[in-house]
Amino acid sequence: MASEVVNRDHHVVIVGGGFDGLATAQGLGNAPGIRVTLVDRRNHHLFQPLLYQVATAVLSPGEVAQPIRSILRKHRRTTVLLGEVRAVDPAGRTVTLTGGGELAYDTLVIATGATHSYFGHPEWAKFAPGLKTLDDARRIRRSVLQAFEDAERALSEEERRRCLTFAIIGGGPTGVEMAGAIAGLARQALVGEFRNIRPEEARVLLIEAGPRILAPFPETLSSYAERALARLGVTVMTGRPVENIDADGVTAAGEVISAATVIWGAGVQASPAGRWLGVETDRAGRVRVEPDLAVEGLAHVYVLGDASLLAGEDRRPLPGLAQVAQQQGEYLGRALRGQILRAETPPPFKFRNRGNLAVIGRKAAVVQWDSVQLKGFPAFAFWAVAHVYLLVGFQNRLIVSLRWLWAYLTKRRGSRIIPESSS
Amino acid sequence: MASEVVNRDHHVVIVGGGFDGLATAQGLGNAPGIRVTLVDRRNHHLFQPLLYQVATAVLSPGEVAQPIRSILRKHRRTTVLLGEVRAVDPAGRTVTLTGGGELAYDTLVIATGATHSYFGHPEWAKFAPGLKTLDDARRIRRSVLQAFEDAERALSEEERRRCLTFAIIGGGPTGVEMAGAIAGLARQALVGEFRNIRPEEARVLLIEAGPRILAPFPETLSSYAERALARLGVTVMTGRPVENIDADGVTAAGEVISAATVIWGAGVQASPAGRWLGVETDRAGRVRVEPDLAVEGLAHVYVLGDASLLAGEDRRPLPGLAQVAQQQGEYLGRALRGQILRAETPPPFKFRNRGNLAVIGRKAAVVQWDSVQLKGFPAFAFWAVAHVYLLVGFQNRLIVSLRWLWAYLTKRRGSRIIPESSS
């Protein structure tokens, strides 16, 4: 790029504009002597905690995303590039982009997150989309809404029943949120709009291999969540490992379930950072990092967020949560700044647990923060306020608040367009 | 469908949920003795007059569209089907849908609108998308925003210039609106967000074959629009028929213009209604109808809106405008009701011109209504209020008003996400 030749500032290249990459860029700020290039293959930062609401027609895609270059507009020393990384050369300190262009770095930060993992069954991806990107959310929304349309036109009772069966795999927060939101769509938002079917008769199944849903939460909250889901009309099926997924539906613990819509919320796999760097990873593809987030044995390379593996104070790996990514980004921005400008040695990264939340549906959620446990409406209200507050962009905050207020009062949904294109 | 066998009510099948089809269904209402089936290949009614704002990142797709079955929810005798018509049999009075299903009708209403026409050059469609559907708008938005991203990464000055050249073909209202909105994006909304380019240096060309833009308006308003566009930074090129469009750009009146983004706003072609019915059409594919919108020589079949050809009081064909389609729908709903329930003969359809509007950009528009002419800010304000009022859905009205207020105050845009999928 044009400025490459003359500029002698320390160049930090950040790959990925999620919570971790963005916080790193913001932490580095506008410090003289440092210039930053942030590369992402999407033009937007995505607020993943609300993605399930896009998939279930509550919010529009643009309301949970913000252009990265717009967020970093005031950072005059930061260049944002829309592009995909093809290769990294840690020895020559360069990053090569797909379609041409090479970036020489002094420090490299990899914040590329994670994607779905189908436990060795990549062929399931076609039938059971996961929920990581806006395109995933659009695809799920399309298939959920289309299922009701197909049911209205179905020529046999059997086909109608298949269209109105929704199977969600995985009883973690994503699976619970999706199941609750689809049940709400069927039992409230769509009621009265069809003439040949009753959408409230849809079957929503939450299929979990382990003995209980929301395993990271205390048992009392798990069983509350099960009861709350049952009230919303979700059938919770625990202890049912999935054995097969195909065009007809799901096979779990030997039972064949005919379902037009199957959604994957079970496993994740870290991005190809390990492959780019030529370093070893754990089974989930995560790169092992030091307490300062540097990659062992590689100079000037840092990996953080879902792409990295670091043990917490309890010696167990830190979970793949937005708050971990966010805190690591804030830490790394500050740490690199001190290191580059003042040659300071940073203290090790320390994760501060800000609490676990999962929303189940209208008026129902669970919150756990140290010894504090909330459930029901108080947890739901806390969740809603926290998420509006955390959204990026004033306009999005206002519009999301309005949509929620409207949805809460009318029980209807504002974003129910089925795009024609097949994505 | 299930109710087919037992129901002896008069069955009206409406194909298309645009302004015309929807107004027909609403006019038929809930009258006992009539049941209605509305078929559309999209699940939403689209407010086309604001589609250019989706294409230029002001509004989100969902904000100019509303699910048809949601609009007609209270019409208990109306069934909405998401489906595509494969064939019509006027003798046997049936409509066959793609993917199975047949509808027997007593009265058939075809309101399938129009699509782009490339004047015998269908190969141009690939390089120069038109603006008729939400998918078109998404595609154009994607290519406009991507052009700025590609310019930021361009490796040569020539390539940068090509990326920053936007050619809009056709100086009608759509072309004028698109050109003004893209110029506003470049000169205001994106300013300060790039490091290697200055988006305000983008060239926006409006290419028109005829001697002036906005030909249906009086000459004074045309020349005002030209001046207003020039102030916004648009280069208006009249008297330049387009001779070729390919991956490199446009050739117009012998001049080769290298442009990464070409947008088609020139010609339209009616939908395949004529082919379905086996009747003759004019060159633009429109079906000739009687003053009561019935197809000549075919019993119980009506065509209206952009798919139809009917002369107005001045003996010239009525133009393909939303207000014509809307008024014809309202007329036909009422007329069919009287005819079916009370065997009334309807009076001929009479178009009442409600005025012509075209918006040019921030604070600039033209309005013509009989002898009344408005331009500048008053026309802009009138346009904005009229369009919010005409939008379907309270939530959309509120959100569009908020987005406009925000865009007007900050000069920024709220819907700038580039989707990954290639549509």
UniProtKB/TrEMBL annotation, chains A, B:
Taxonomy, superkingdom: Bacteria
Catalytic activity: a quinone + NADH + H(+) = a quinol + NAD(+)
SUPFAM superfamilies: FAD/NAD(P)-binding domain
Keyword Lipid metabolism applies: no
Domain FAD/NAD(P)-binding span(s) in chain numbering: 11-329
InterPro entries per UniProt: FAD/NAD-bd_sf, FAD/NAD-binding_dom, NDH-2, NDH2-like_C
Pfam families in the cross-refs: NDH2_C (PF22366), Pyr_redox_2 (PF07992)
Enzyme Commission number, as recorded: 1.6.5.9
GO molecular function, one term: NADH dehydrogenase (quinone) (non-electrogenic) activity
Alphabetical keyword list: FAD, Flavoprotein, NAD, Oxidoreductase, Transit peptide
The External alternative NADH-ubiquinone oxidoreductase-like C-terminal domain, residue ranges: 354-412
Keyword Protease applies: no
Family: Belongs to the NADH dehydrogenase family.
Protein name according to UniProt: NADH:ubiquinone reductase (non-electrogenic)
Source organism phylogeny: Bacteria, Pseudomonadati, Pseudomonadota, Alphaproteobacteria, Hyphomicrobiales
